[in-house]
Amino acid sequence: MACLEKDGKGIMISAPPDTGKTSLILKCLKANTGQNLGLSLLSDDMVIANEKGELFSFPKPFTISSHTLDAVFGMETSLWYKVRSNVHSGGGRSAYKGMGKMSWLPMMSINALAQIVFEPPKLYPEELVNVK
């Protein structure tokens, strides 16, 4: 669940993992810097709402792939960033599931080990776009 804000109203974007939510909001925010779309970022991954329907920012770094950085910003990333990006992609998570089914080691343990060995590729939104 990603969320942008415009004129005090939330624009929530819900879609399954690895379908382009981060790319979409980054493209909207990137366009915002030159075209004054009036958008600001509330969240890339989690939105907090109260009983009145008010939405709140949940500041945390993006887990962002090397191909998204290249597609949205034309940023070339290091080989290590690309490796980490692939390990934490949908394909990587599918591989963990498969390994968990084929071994005595549970999938969550395999995932935890991958998180330790291959730190997820994280960037703060401020490193990429203007954030209010």
Work out the count of structural domains: 1
For the sheet with most strands, the description reads: 3 strands, antiparallel
Read across the widest sheet, the strand sequence of neighbours is 2-1-3
In terms of DSSP E residues, the strand content is 15-25%
Structural classification? alpha+beta
The percent range for helix content is: 40-55%
Radius of gyration, taken over Cα atoms and rounded to an integer in Å: 17 Å
- Mean model confidence by pLDDT: 84
Q: Give the total of beta strands.
A: 7
Along the chain, the helix and strand elements come as: EEHEEEEHHHHE
Name the overall outline: globular
Distance between the termini: 19 Å
Can you tell me about this structure?
The chain is an alpha+beta fold and 132 residues long. The protein has one domain (2-127). The protein has helices at 21-35, 66-73, 79-87, 90-102, 107-117; strands at 2-6, 9-13, 39-43, 48-49, 55-56, 62-63, 122-123. Strands 2-1-3 form a 3-stranded antiparallel beta sheet, with helices on one face. A two-stranded antiparallel ribbon has the order 4-5.
Write the layout of secondary structure elements.
Blueprint: E1 2-6, E2 9-13, H1 21-35, E3 39-43, E4 48-49, E5 55-56, E6 62-63, H2 66-73, H3 79-87, H4 90-102, H5 107-117, E7 122-123
Antiparallel strand pairs: 1-2, 1-3, 4-5, 6-7
Helix pairs in contact: 1-2, 4-5
